[in-house]
Amino acid sequence: MQQGTLMRKVKSKSWKKQRYFKLQEDCMTIWYQSKRTGKTESAFSISDVETVREGHQSEVLQSVAEEFPPERCFTIVFYGRRGNLDLIAGSAEEAQCWVQGLRQLIEPRSFPLTFALVSCTWIRDWFQKADKNKDGRMNFKEVQHLLKMMNVDMNEDHALRLFQDADKSESGTLEGEEFVLFYKALTQREEVLSLFQEFSEDGKKLTLLELVDFLQQEQLEDEGTEELAMELIDKYEPSETARARHVLSADGFLMYLCSPEGSIFNPQHRALWQDMSQPLCHYFISSSHNTYLIEDQICGQSSIEGYIRALKRGCRCLEVDCWDGPNGEPMVYHGHTFTSKIPFREVVSTLGKTSWGNSSSPLPSMGMSPPSSHPQSAEGSWLCWPPAVQDPRGQGPWRRWVAQGASLSPTPQELKHKILLKGKKIGRLEDTLDGPGDEAPDVSDDDNGAEAEEERRRAKVRGTQHGSALQKDKESLAQALSDCVIYCKNVPFRGFQEACSHSRPSEISSLSEAKARKLIRDEGNEFVRHNAWQLTRIYPSGMRTDSSNYSPQEMWNVGCQIVALNFQTAGTEMDLCDGLFSQNGCCGYVLKPPFMRDEETLFNPSDPSSREGPGPITLTIQVISGQQLPKVANSKEGAIIDPLVRVEIYGVPADQAHQETKYIENNGFNPHWDETLQFQLHVPELALIRFVVEDYDKTSRNDFVGQFTLAFANIKPGYRHIHLLSKDGTSIPPSSLFVHIRITE
């Protein structure tokens, strides 16, 4: 359609405006204009889009759910801090057309030649930014301005020579393909070409056998290398003739190195690759704190967007703090603060729609205690009900395996598509299986006794504000809620000896970060042993009112499974969290090393020699070059970064280290370092490697440019690209580092 597709742009329940949306002919830009005035309001590049959500998967679209069906609604989510774009199409078919079309354009797996397309997008974006008068061509002055925008400080004579070489029409301007030629000359990768020629006999192509040699000698691929070589040629060689001859050109070689197969992250570990049949306590679980908050802990906004973002990020342990609201309607917010409130039913609806989008792994939820809400209303078919009793919705026993006997230590595999509630429980799991118990509910030290204090407050309010009949109903509902707490009964922590004598695998204790640190310092081995058979949750200090985070690494070092972080706060701590859980299909569960799953283990993170297994390994990283690094946010116009690379090791105390390269002056476009950094790792199974690019500043603190974090277990040796992420964990294509990795014992 020439005019575009007419859709409603929604900002709130009362703000719904009709706009025309159109994908430009370049297939890289979308603009939209007002139906009434015809004036173009905005435009955005496909490269700015992170994902597309279908249905009512935003707070705004949920507010109009009764008015518009989910089949017509979708949300465009942008990288960085830019707000979402919520849209309502005229029909379900129209919505699907846009959703599927956008996904085809933005998802790398939709195209075999991803790197080529990303580069094409990058070229078009820069051309449009630098073409000041919008005449579709660029003179040399505009090219000079473009180089500044692209972080390049180039000698004017050299820039003019590249410009003239690309100006085939000799018109004094660059158009279309001429600009592409200029860009290719600008981005010539000498270090990659040199590597290519080292294995190519004629310097022009890699034969199948030459590519096999490279894969075996440098990339350390040891199985099926000939089949892999054929696959890479078919996938990344742009020339049909070369593909037919089973050879790889220099362009195809570069595309391979920039592809997932050429990434530092082992592509096989992106999928679900770990054993999921171990007890829950044998896994690290991606966990959030006060998930509903998207700002600070005192006055911040509560929003279902917090749950959506956390789940999309792979989080599997959410926090839902429920309090009595108007007319007995439970509300979710941070108690005793000024944070805003959201209805409990909206949270439940959101969890039902988004919990299983990225992962089918079980979803433990913390602090679920709606005193006036029957738990069956909370999507009962997804709740983990007592194994030997009927699902209250009449659907029969929820798992066939329990017919042979209830398990106190279920596995993620057995609990797929189930929500586990953590909370106080009347009696024990065994009592639930046998019938109602009469044991008083346990109260943990979670949040410094906040749960106990709130329980007493609620009891007082109930006693003074309601009659005995209503009180009886609430007591009945409390029993029903207690019955929902199966494998995560909240119990106070009174020491490892007490836990060993009286606790059960179906119970869980919550510890503040300060208490956890003291236990790590004083009883490290006992802590590891405890976490081999029971779940432990760690939560941030109450002093972190700004929603800052503590380091999760020291908690993982002793095997704590549920290390709750403020997902809304970007920084090193969330980089480590994303780095650990980016593996195993991003399911939110990562299997702990064998020596942390043994209840008799001798391992203590403060003494690396206590780990059973081979000795230390040496990690050698040659930082070769960088490509198209982004400018520092809010930098002055024309400013060019002076990049350096710092490699940080996070793990047991003996492995904590960092080293950095020198800085390269005035070159964020294609800096070359060629520096080698070396680290010794005593417990590599727990190590996380963080690559950070910063803009050097001799008078003040360096500015953040980009980072990438991954577990040591996921590293692929050889010549690899590291695709950088922004401060909030989103991709910033095509910014990358080129490195050479070696691992020796």
TrEMBL record:
Region described as Disordered: spans on this chain: 355-397, 430-472
EF-hand domain segment(s): 118-153, 154-189
InterPro entries named in the record: C2_dom, C2_domain_sf, EF-hand-dom_pair, EF_Hand_1_Ca_BS, EF_hand_dom, PH-like_dom_sf, PH_domain, PI-PLC_fam
Keyword presence, Signal: no
CDD domains the record matches: C2_PLC_like (cd00275), EFh_PI-PLCdelta4 (cd16219), PH_PLC_delta (cd13363)
Signal peptide: none
Uppermost EC category: hydrolase
All residue ranges annotated as the PH domain in the record: 1-107
GO molecular function: calcium ion binding; phosphatidylinositol-4,5-bisphosphate phospholipase C activity
Regions of compositional bias (Low complexity) in chain numbering: 359-377
UniProt KW keywords: Calcium, Cytoplasm, Endoplasmic reticulum, Hydrolase, Lipid degradation, Lipid metabolism, Membrane, Metal-binding, Nucleus, Repeat, Transducer
Catalytic activities: a 1,2-diacyl-sn-glycero-3-phospho-(1D-myo-inositol-4,5-bisphosphate) + H2O = 1D-myo-inositol 1,4,5-trisphosphate + a 1,2-diacyl-sn-glycerol + H(+); a 1,2-diacyl-sn-glycero-3-phospho-(1D-myo-inositol) + H2O = 1D-myo-inositol 1-phosphate + a 1,2-diacyl-sn-glycerol + H(+)
Cofactors, names only: Ca(2+)
Topological relation to the membrane, as annotated: Peripheral membrane protein
Location, primary (coarse class): cytoplasm
Keyword Ribonucleoprotein among record annotations: no
Residue spans of biased composition, Acidic residues class: 432-453
Residue ranges annotated for the C2 domain, each copy included: 597-726
PI-PLC Y-box domain mapped to chain residues: 481-597
Parts forming coiled coils: none
CC terms in the record's Gene Ontology section: endoplasmic reticulum; nucleus; plasma membrane
Protein name (Swiss-Prot/TrEMBL): Phosphoinositide phospholipase C
Record organism: Gymnorhina tibicen (Australian magpie)
Designated gene of the protein: Plcd4
